[in-house]
Amino acid sequence: NAGVTQTPKFQVLKTGQSMTLQCAQDMNHNSMYWYRQDPGMGLRLIYYSASEGTTDKGEVPNGYNVSRLNKREFSLRLESAAPSQTSVYFCASKIAGGDTQYFGPGTRLTVL
Amino acid sequence: KQEVTQIPAALSVPEGENLVLNCSFTDSAIYNLQWFRQDPGKGLTSLLLIQSSQREQTSGRLNASLDKSSGRSTLYIAASQPGDSATYLCAVINNAGNMLTFGGGTRLMVKP
Question: What is the rounded average pLDDT of the residues B43-65?
Answer without folding.
Answer: 94
